[in-house]
Amino acid sequence: MEKPKPENAPSNLAITGRYVLPPAIFDCLERTKPGAGNEIQLTDGLLALAQRRKLYGYEFEGIRYDLGDRVGFLTAQIGFGLKRPELAASLRAWLKTALGA
Fold this sequence. Notes:
The protein has 101 residues and is mainly alpha-helical. It has helices at 24-31, 42-52, 70-83, 85-99. It is elongated.
């Protein structure tokens, strides 16, 4: 399901956008009718593919950044910057100044 509202989501899992797919996905996509945004959605193609064969995912614990959203993109940059030893101290100092803390 493409970006459902939380109350309509079929689970609490998300696909983060990294796939290793078999060539059969192209046949599934060709048979998929446009969905959300009147576009053919990969998630719909994956659902069709799952009817043919097993699909596997990797469940991880950690932070998931939404890089399709401007604030998510910036949050990711700051989050990863804070993990870099050569950037962390300067970035923390700037954040404290910028936030007035």
